[in-house]
């Protein structure tokens, strides 16, 4: 781990990692969500690390996270992941399921449901309030029956409406190119119905050009911050 403090002048900094992986850094904390890439160069040993894992799908969960464990690092893990799967993470593991809330240091962590597997995370910190969707998305697959499409829409809106009751400074919402014309529906719904200050697309693999093109549909909403490369600081 990096022994040199990473001095940030902002209240918080947001770095896009890979796919749905992001990092929020404050002067005392580093919050990592759904990391599947090597983040060794970003980990600062004088800060406390919190690693959030929304569910067990391979594009959100990687066992290599165990290499960042120390006495101060904490892992907040969706309970769809069995305990033995994170045995190498050490003792500082907190399992959480939808509807549960836990308090770690100065963080208040609330788990919401997902429209796929696991949980979505709302995290209240002294510096900012963060929402990470995980696989909570408006999964409108063109080949699904109409009844399934309507069920997916209803489920997404019901969960997201509860999430948006919270004050949110920065949110990470899926924009999955595989959904075609429906790829922007989740993030559009969120932008239209929340007062969130900053919104960042996730869950798009390495298709940076695709999300740039899709974002044009959202008419350049000033709250939308688009990643253009892995490791980029967005805020």
Write a compact overview of the structure shown.
By secondary structure, the chain is an alpha/beta fold.
Apparent shape: globular
Low-confidence stretches: none
Taken as a percent bin, the fraction of beta residues is: 15-25%
In which order are the strands of the major sheet placed? 1-2-3-4-5-6
Which range best describes the helical content: under 10%, 10-25%, 25-40%, 40-55%, 55-70% or over 70%?
10-25%
- The assigned structural class equals alpha/beta
Report the count of strand segments.
Answer: 12
The termini sit apart by 23 Å
Question: How are helices and strands ordered from N to C?
Answer: EEEEEEEEEEHEHEH
Q: In DSSP terms, counting alpha (H) and pi (I) runs of 4 or more, how many helices?
A: 3
The average pLDDT score comes to 94
What characterizes the major β-sheet?
6 strands, mixed
Rg from Cα: 17 Å
